[in-house]
Specification:
This protein is mostly helical and 71 residues long. 63% of the residues lie in helices and 0% in strands. The protein contains 2 helices and no strands. Helix 1 packs antiparallel against helix 2. The radius of gyration is 16 Å and the shape is elongated. The mean pLDDT is 88.
């Protein structure tokens, strides 16, 4: 993982509760889901409650990944 305070060439790696591959797979799927919703909204199609809930879950997963990597 990137460590802004580390000397060049000396990085500290921290253990994550998920693999980088798993994180990217989740981010890829959630980003696509968000993009489709944005396109639908741009065309004037409102979100139904199920869409809204799935987008909130996607945002929560993205936040969880970011929090674990940044913290």
């Amino acid at each position: 993982a990137w460590d802004e305070g580390a000397e060049r060439g000396k990085t500290r790696h921290k253990r994550l509760s998920f693999s980088p591959r798993a994180a990217l797979e989740v981010l890829r799927a959630d980003a696509l889901h968000c993009a489709v919703a944005a396109c639908n909204l741009a065309q004037g199609k409102p979100l139904n409650e199920g869409d809204r809930q799935s987008l909130l879950q996607a945002a929560s997963r993205i936040d969880l990944i970011a929090e674990e990597i940044v913290a």
